[in-house]
Amino acid sequence: MSASHRRPPRFAVGCALAALSAVLASPAWADPAPSFPALLARLDQTPASQEAEALSEAAEARVRQARVRPNPTLGLDASNVFGSGPYRGLDNAETTLSFSQDLELWGRRTARINAARADAGTATLQRDLAVLNAAGRLAQVYAEAEAAQRRAVLAEDSLSLTIADARAALILVEQGREPLLRGIQGESEAAAARASRDEAVAERDAAFARLTAVAMLPSPVTGIDASLLDRSPAAAFAGSADPTTVRVAQAERTAAERRIDVERIRTRPDITASVGVRRYEMEDATALTFGVSMPLPLFDRNRGNIEAAQADFRAADARLASARQEAQADRAAAQARLAASVSRVSAADAGVGSAEEAYRLSRIGFDAGRISQLELRVTRAALISARTTAVDARLARVRAEIELARLDGRAPFQGAE
């Protein structure tokens, strides 16, 4: 027998088996996190939703303020007082108490209210869009956390398979059927699998921390039981003709158009009417006064503001055209990606089944001495890759559903079973 096939001492093999058993230790998980529908029901508690709701309420408050008419002006004017000669003191005073009111002619108030309503409509749609984006982000973080958890489980399974194969190789080495090099290779593979397991666990913990922060949970997430990766996407959704992004752009265009009306009306004179009572101390008499005042548009005709509002309108119109084109392309792309991801999941599941059967047969052949350790390592690597691919395919399907749901104006998996 050559030196490379010389039987190793039993003590060395036993130490190697003990070392392989020690790498299997892993931390236990605590209680699972709430399901995705339960977290979705609490979406209004997230900062993004609360910010959008506050901005919408502020816009509605500005509509109420726009309906309010300007306050009247109360004036008191005294003349012919504290002078010299007959105007010494207050004996010859002329005192006028007046009441002035801005008439808001030319549709000034109506234009102001319409502009505020348009801004409020835009804020409402932006609130809805913010909620949709928050729902999509929650779904993505939840799915990524679940995928990280599955990868950690797969890494644990991979470590177990690697250790089992290494143990089988060490037994063959002890029996003299394999050289000592095979046992050393098995130990090295087990160490690498342990490092991969530790990395996957760290990624899982980081993903759980992100989910805890995004969902604003009172206690850290330590596990996920209610699967989102295994849920089938929602059926074809018959929503509005335009996605929320297009409707927001449309509302912004309408608001810009209303602001043009406001600026144009400001070029017309702002007429103020007044009525008052004048007291004549010398004659001991009283008389009424009436007056109308208006600014003369000699210098400021508000042309700059009108041109700025018109430019804002053209910009909003361009954004609307761009949003429509992008929405049409994005929807077609999202539908194509979702269909492809569904097919990819089916193919990945079939690949996992084939890889598991191939590894099972390879392990039987290896134990019987008909298959080399190299062939067993290849089938094990194929099994690990197939399981990882299945997780990645499900994560891609969730991301495609998130994008399509955003374009449909709904929460991800809304209506799915």
Automatic annotation (TrEMBL):
Keywords: Signal
Signal sequence, renumbered to the chain: 1-30
Domain of life assignment: Bacteria
Listed Pfam families: OEP
Similarity annotation: Belongs to the outer membrane factor (OMF) (TC 1.B.17) family.
Protein name: TolC family protein
